[in-house]
Amino acid sequence: MTVILIQCFVKPIITINLLNKLVNNSLLNLKDYTLIFYIDRAKINSKFTKNNNLLINNLNIFKKRYLHMFKDIIIKINDKNLGPYKTCLHANDFAYKFSDFVIFSEDDSIFCNDTLNYYYFFKNSNLIDNEEIIGITSYSLFFHKKDLSSDIDINSIKNRIISNNDLNSVIKVKSIPNKQWGMFKKGWNKVRCIRENGGTDYETLLHVIENNYHFIYSIVPRTNDIGLFHKLGFTTLYYKKKIPIDTIKFITSDDFDIIFSDYNLKNIDWNKYVEDYIF
């Protein structure tokens, strides 16, 4: 059994859209999955309180409607506002009580049709069951919307993906995603110490680099992070400053007719390879 863990806060409509995509288009039997919503409480009488309450209400409605499709649906709510990093810690600790493998996702990362297939494949491979590769992500380092201009021919990019055999290819990167990933508990334990001490995404990344840990990234995006505040992506906290980071993709695996059931690890330098997809 696998847990799908969604960390939520104040996006009642976006979160439900994410879930509708998951239940209506998944290629796998969802009865093999426990779905956990872990919700951070808004501060009392804050500008987020209304949407926080609406989200909780919407998720309870979703649970009643779709519980029959999953092994279980669990809604867990913080007693008080803990912020994103402490909530991430508590959410993952809670999820690993139910399964040794957890797919973590934030509430604005939209699943593609084959996202669960992707995680299922690597969960059952030996690739992430070692000391160096601690997890996988359906996120991609390619195809940022900011690189898209009006004169770009999307079909030519799709053809290049096929000709390069990249539709079903992945790469190993000394980095860690912060919006969606899949990890066994022993992988989570390698980065948990940073979250336990209140560490940010950036501090977690430094820990990964210093310890020579890697994640498997999909070349073609199998999730689309539609962002938080910025039109090209989300605003995250680096060096205690809010910095817009491009996250929205202009191509995902949903743009292809063929969904592959297995994946090929390419031994490439992604920083150089990315030039193939900048037009």
Report on the structure:
With 279 residues, the chain is α/β, with parallel strands linked by helices. The chain has two domains: 1-107, Rossmann fold, CATH 3.40.50; 115-279, no CATH class. Helix content is 32%, strand content 24%. The strands form four sheets. It has a five-stranded mixed β-sheet with strand order 3-2-1-4-8, with helices on both faces. Helix 2 links the parallel strand 2 and strand 3 (72-77). Helix 3 packs antiparallel against helix 6 (185-196). The longest helix has 18 residues, at 49-66. The N and C termini lie far apart (42 Å). The model is unreliable at 229-235 (pLDDT under 50).
Set out the fold topology.
Blueprint: E1 2-8, H1 12-25, E2 33-39, H2 49-66, E3 72-77, H3 83-95, E4 101-106, E5 109-111, H4 115-123, E6 133-137, H5 154-163, E7 169-173, E8 180-184, H6 185-196, H7 201-210, E9 214-218, E10 223-225, E11 233-238, E12 241-246, E13 264-266, H8 270-273
Parallel strand pairs: 1-2, 1-4, 2-3, 6-9, 7-13
Antiparallel strand pairs: 4-8, 5-10, 7-9, 11-12
Helix pairs in contact: 1-2, 3-6
